[in-house]
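Long-time lurker, first post. I've been practising inverse folding by hand and with some scripts of my own, and I keep getting stuck on stretches where the structure tokens seem ambiguous. Below is the full token string for one chain I'm working on. Before anyone asks, I'm not after the true native sequence, just a reasonable design that respects the backbone. If someone could post their per-position residues I'd love to compare against what I wrote down in my notebook.
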């Protein structure tokens, strides 16, 4: 399915969402933020979707940022609302009950890097460039960039990227821990789909428990985090997939997980 702003495909449990404004390097205007919010809500509630891949249309950009033309005319109140709109959508992605992979096919700048950072995994083309260039516009990141970058790669790199506004190469982003993997641009789609297909075959409730552990553990102390993990571990024993996974190992066969 394709609407004006987003193309949506599903195959073998993998839903691919492709932001579709290549003439504007997939810049995030309010309508695109809303389209993404709706598409992720839909993917979350659809049991046939096991994994989501998010990318941008065209050869140049994942997303080159929030839409500067749209922001140019905003009042302070509208600016705050625009920020909250993006933040809510990206929080939804971060808290998705199934894995979300950002396939970073080019520039991921400003809101584009913020969007990629709200995904659970990031695979980038070797040609990709990432950064938080808002400072060059007299702005700061507004969709959680200062907070997620800080949590992903610490103060030094966060301040370097946000204070200078200079984009970094995929190689440097990998070094800093911002992305998980780099692949040659020509292999990006195939490599991402390989990973997505692997995750789509995994036990969905265990994936969900794992995502919950990291979401909760990232925000609480070690004692609470360990308690939470133990509770999630116990909960896994209530699933058919846990019986199937352990039985398949003992019977030396491949497990067939059902998400129950
Ligand atoms: N918002 C709105 N439009 C954007 C945009 C953004 N964030 N990024 C790119 N575009 C538009 C350009 O205005 C241009 O539109 P036009 O053809 O109608 O003039 C089109 O996308 C192509 O971009 P262009 O700048 O011509 O491509 P380039 O290859 O020369 O440069 C970038 C690529 C990414 C370096 C450059 O587009 C850029 O710096 N973009 C803004 C990045 C940014 O500051 N993001 C943070 C926003 S908070």
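-- Answer (accepted) --
I ran through it position by position. Result:
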């Amino acid at each position: 399915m394709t609407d004006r702003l987003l193309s949506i495909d599903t195959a073998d449990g993998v839903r691919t969402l492709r932001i579709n404004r290549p003439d504007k390097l997939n810049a995030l205007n309010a309508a695109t933020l809303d389209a993404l919010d709706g598409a992720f809500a839909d993917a979350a509630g659809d049991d046939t979707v096991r994994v989501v891949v998010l990318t941008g249309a065209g050869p140049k950009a994942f997303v080159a940022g929030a839409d500067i033309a749209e922001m140019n005319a905003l009042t302070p109140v509208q600016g705050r609302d625009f920020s909250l709109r993006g933040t809510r959508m990206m929080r939804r992605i971060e808290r998705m009950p199934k894995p979300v992979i950002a396939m970073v096919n080019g520039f991921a700048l400003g809101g584009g890097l913020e969007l990629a950072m709200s995904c659970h995994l990031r695979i980038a083309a070797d040609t990709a460039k990432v950064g938080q260039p808002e400072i060059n516009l007299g702005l700061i990141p507004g969709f959680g960039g200062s907070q997620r970058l800080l949590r992903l790669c610490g103060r030094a790199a966060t301040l370097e990227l946000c204070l200078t506004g200079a984009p970094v190469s995929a190689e440097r982003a990998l070094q800093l821990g911002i992305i998980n993997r780099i692949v040659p641009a020509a292999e990006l789609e195939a490599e991402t789909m390989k990973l997505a297909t692997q995750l789509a075959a995994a036990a969905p409730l265990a994936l969900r428990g794992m995502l919950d552990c990291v979401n909760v553990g990232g925000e609480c102390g070690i004692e609470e985090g360990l308690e939470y993990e133990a509770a999630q571990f116990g909960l896994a024993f209530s699933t058919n997939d846990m019986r199937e996974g352990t039985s398949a190992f003992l019977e030396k066969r491949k497990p067939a997980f059902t998400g129950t």
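A couple of notes from the structure itself: The chain has a mean pLDDT of 97. The pocket of coenzyme A is lined by residues 24-25, 27, 64-69, 107, 109-111, 133-134, 137, 139 (CB under 6 Å). Happy to go over any region you disagree with.
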